[in-house]
Every structure is written in structure tokens, then in C-alpha cells.
Amino acid sequence: MNLPCRIVGVLDNGVDGLSPRALAHIQEADLVIGGTRVLDLFAKQFAPYAERRDLTGKLNQVPEWIRGAQTEDRRVVVLATGDPLCHGIAAFLQARLCIEACEVLPNLSTVQLACARLGLPWQDMKILSVHSRDAGEWREGAGPEHGLYGILRALHRHDRFAVFTSPDNTPDRIARLLVSEGLDDQFRMAVAERLLQADENIVMDVAVADAAERRFADPNIVLLWRTAARRPDVQFGLADESYRQRKPDKGLITKREVRACSLARMQLRADSVVWDIGAGSGAVGLEAARLCPDGHVYAIEKNAEDAAIALDNRRRLHTYNYTLLQGKAPEGLEAWPDPDAVFIGGSGGELADLIALSLRHLKPDGWLVMNFVTFENLATAVEALKANNAAWDITQLQAARSQPILHMHRLAAENPVWIVTAQRGPS
User: What does the pLDDT look like over 6-44, one tens digit per residue?
Assistant: First the structure.
């Protein structure tokens, strides 16, 4: 049986931070793999015959390096910072080599060290990492494709965080994300710079807005903690008044009763991807996003004023897994990931094409849900569904709300709405 690849956790205090067993593996290795900085740090410990390989920019090649060395019965060591199984290289290698091909020798995580410096218990920390490619500055409303998106989603669901940074995705960039989303007054930040090095420095309890304007020594780790009480969100059934709407009243919001029924017909899961076509004030899409905390909603609205209102509702309701495109569908929809559910609230005269496109992109067992108030649009929808061999049904929903009349109350009818639901038919 081939010797296992030893994945050794190291810290910036060098040999002083290693167990005798870990140090022996490094000193006896035939092949040592690591980043530039750790290879230089431990260079004096390598055997004269040891081969060094720098993985910087070559991570995908590392499994093949290891396989090749193991077939030759060479002793392989991979140097990783801290605990290799905490946002480190170990999981990546185990997934490609199998667990039995690797032995992990962990060290203290830099999260543990940073929390120890600040006297913070770390068992409740949500640990995140942006130690990857340059994500670029955060753009309000960006989606899962952005490298900082995971931080924003977590900020809405947890109270304490530790974030592994990188030379590009820096503490000040993270702070600017919070400022952009209006969250800077809800958190405080600390930054542990150059842990275990001679110039180690802990920047303690700094305001997020101040952190956004300064630079920090690399390498570093960020700690964030919430200072304002987090109120649990209402997930379903928000009042119409919770949303800003364009005035005068043009019905640019799907009313609560229709919204509730439409969302129910979408069969949403926690990780659903949803398209909201004709977003209006954003009510359906934003409520869908709240029901899918691990998913994402992609919305489009052609009217610039309504799009601005929907974005304002996104911010006011602290709903961050929601991306809005201002434009006329179907432009831009082909770039979105395939949806688990599609809601069409407005079509801009492109209804038949939008139905065909939605059915084409729907995932298996996904649902298309549409709302109509006119005979003409209903008829167009039914013909388009038939033409695309879809399975469909129609529900007519009519609600009445109580209204005061003198010292009493009466019922005032809302406009009837047809809710059309469909799935892809057999191909």
C-alpha cells in the first residue's frame, strides 16, 4: 500500500509550533508541496534530497503530483496553514485522492488564535473564507457568482463571524460590503494581523465604517460580531404595507392573498433558484427569497422607477439573496441559472415567448406560476402552454377585505385574479 500523503498544519512561528511527529514528517519527506511563504519558512528543515513544489496558482495540479509520487513510494508532505480541515486544502485533496490516501496532522487554527487574543469563545463563530481569487469590490444586489456573497448571506443569519481573508479580499473590502448594504452600524470588527510573527498586531473593536477606510497588514483574519439585536424575519405573508409601491396606486404589487397562493404553488425549498419576471415592487420575489435562504431570486423589471422601488424594498427588508435587473424580458434571462420556479407577474407584451423560455429552462419538477387579470393574457397563456406541451391548471382567486363604513364594517371585493401554474410536459 502506498504511503499516505501527510497534510501538516503549520503556523508562522515555524518549528516552535510543530509536534515532534509533524516535524519528523517534514524532515523526512521526498516531496514537499506548499505555498511560497510556507516553503520559504521551513526550507531549512527539508532533507537535501527533497523536491519542493510551489502550489501557488497550481492547486488543481496538486492531486496529480501526489498520485505520481505515491506510485513511486515517495514520502509526500503538503504544508497548510493552521488546521488543514478548516477552510484549508485537506478537504480539496481528500475529495480527489480519497480519505485513505491522506493523513492530516492539524495545528491550531488561526481562528482559535485570533479569538484567544481577544478573549472571545469561538464555538459559536460562523467561520467563512474569502481566501480565493480576487472577488472585486461588492456591488449591491450581486449574486452567488460574487466571491463575497457568502459573507452577506451569513451576516443575515448569524451573530458572530470569523473570516479568512486574502491579499485581495481584504478586511477593508469586507467592511465596505457592510457599508454598501447598510449593515455597518449593526456590527463591530477586529482584525488579527500577522499572527505569531514578530510584528503581530491586533486591531480591536473598530467601527466597520472606519475599517472600510484603512489598510491592514497581511496575512490577517477578520472577526465580526453583531451589536444590534437581530429580529427574526417574517418568512411568509408580509402585509402589503411592508412594501413601498409606486404612487398613484396602479396595482404594482401582488396583493397578499394572491401572493400567498402563488408562492404556495411554486413548491419552494430552502435552496430554490427563482426567476421573477415583471417584478413590480418586488413583493413576490422578495418573499420568495425569504423562503429560500440558501437559494437566490433573480428578478427583472422594465420600469426604472419600479426597479428602484424594488431595490429599496430589498434593502429595507434586509433580503440579500435577491438580484434585480432593470430591463425588458427576455433580455438577460439566458444568463441566469436554471430555475426551480418561475413567477411571471408582467410580460411587457412578450408573454408567449417568456412562457416558452421559462419552460425550456425550468429544472425537472420545477413550476411556472403566472398571475392574470385580463381575459386576453389568460387566453394567450393557455395557448402558449398548449403549444409547448405543458401540464397546466388554473385557479381563480377572489378575496374580499373588510372596510369601515360609519361605525360598522363591510366587505370590499378585490379584483379577481387567475393563477395559472404549469410544468414541463413529456418531451
Answer: 999 999 999 999 999 999 999 999 999 999 999 999 999
On whether the 5-107 domain is CATH 3.20.20.450, my answer is no
Q: What is the pLDDT of residue 1?
A: 54
Question: How far apart, in whole angstroms, are the C-alpha atoms of residue 343 and residue 277?
Answer: 6
Give dist(CA 244, CA 256) in Å, integer: 14
Q: Distance between CA 28 and CA 176 in Å, rounded? A: 46
What is the CATH code of the structural domain delimited by 111-226?
3.30.950.10
The tens digit of pLDDT for each residue in 383-406 reads 999 999 999 999 999 988 999 998
Q: Name the pTM for this structure.
A: 0.86
Determine contact, residues 290/261, Cβ cutoff 8 Å.
no
CB 101 within 8 A of CB 124: no
First to last CA, the chain: 50
Using alpha carbons, list the distances in angstroms from residue 353 to 192, 324, 339, 348, 424. Answer: 54, 20, 17, 11, 15
Angle at 277 between CA 276 and CA 282, to 5 degrees: 55
Phi, psi of 104, deg, nearest 5: -100, 130
Neighbours of 379 (CB within 10 A): 11
With bands split at pLDDT 50, 70 and 90, how would you rate the model's confidence at 249? Answer: low
Span(s) in the chain for CATH 3.40.50.150: 240-423
Residue 250 banded pLDDT, cuts 50, 70, 90: low
CATH architecture of 240-423: 3-Layer(aba) Sandwich (3.40)
